[in-house]
Amino acid sequence: MENKKKNAFYAQSGGVTSVINASAAGVIDSARKHKKYINKLYAGQNGILGALNQDLIDTSFESKSDIKNLKYTPGGIFGSCRYKLQDYKENEADYEKLLKVFKAHNIGYFFYNGGGDSQDTTNKISEYCVKKGFDIKCIGIPKTVDNDLPLTDCSPGFGSVAKYTAISTLEAGLDVKSMCATSTKVFILEVMGRHAGWIAASSALASESRQHPPHIILFPEIVFNEKLFLKNVKNIVAKFGYCVVVTSEGVKNKQGKFLSESGIKDAFGHAQLGGVSPYLSDLIKAKNGYKCHWAVADYLQRSARHIASKTDVEQAYALGSYAVDLAVSGKNAVMTSIKRTLNKPYKWKLSTVPLHKVANVEKKMPKNYISADGYHITSACRKYMAPLINGEDCPKYKNGIPLYTSFKNKKVKKIKL
Fold first, then answer.
1. 148 is catalytic
2. Tens digit of each residue's pLDDT (9 = 90 or more) over 332-350
3. Which domains can be identified in the chain, with CATH numbers?
4. Residues 29, 146, 148, 393: which is the catalytic one?
5. Does pTM surpass 0.85?
């Protein structure tokens, strides 16, 4: 590799997590260590839009203490976006614009931190730059609370959401149990997961016994059977006095339609889901006559940094740092990944997978991870998930509130293209 300093570009994409900033901290720290190859690390304001609009942030102005505290801060410090690049074979406009910005700002390294759609974006940019003879190393950094990226043991963001979901299920379950004799009989918690039920499954970590919440888990992988569901709810209430249901937002009926589909599409063409928990609550009230309460975890589950998994934080940081190491060594068109080497005690190592193998590919729950009746998890699933929520890595507090960091986010002067 030619030993000539280049600038690097990093951006965050898609729905943020409580640990995506830990990956950002890993990228920044590693870029500063590789001064031989990297001059400055620029961040994109609002994801790839930062590159398209030449809206760049110079991270060299951020202090070591703020970068250290970034690991404990939820959200996306540079802003994120949902923006789909078209296939360059059909429309090169965005790619031509990106190439002009990369050339103008001497960018030789590209790091994109996101899920399946983001890995697709990184892959397309890599292919286009190779086609145009532009030397740039493109590395994807995984992130998704849904845990649906393939060829990696887990996705950064999932472990912390899983921890939040399990704890919330445990605590809410104790609340409902206290009141069920004269009040609420059924509580429904709705969690994220469009096509994969990993987050819903993680609620089972609240207890090792199905006699305790969650009593019923609804997965996108299992077709919703109204009659059977209502029968199960009735039996559980009769047995325990109450029932706690955890449902994935992506549960579908036998026609293949989301129970909560609103009819609106997002930037990637995905159906906008509008709340399966109130639907189920109304159904239970109408058919079984029970008083129900429901909650939608929504942004709370993915931003709860105060109870993040230590394992998750460590992996997020390591994957960001490793991405830079790979790029300066000449690697291109790969995503950093986690490889499990031992289950108990949980051990893992850093690895890579080709971008084209992960772009737009969803990892769903394996059949052997879902119980025979379709309403809970198996021991194999528990064995897989349990280590991912281990450990606490709490932020510092002041006046009872977590101390989260903020950046200067000093803009790079635009160059006339």
1. no
2. 999 999 999 999 999 999 9
3. 6-144+306-361+392-402 (3.40.50.450), 158-305 (3.40.50.460)
4. 146
5. yes
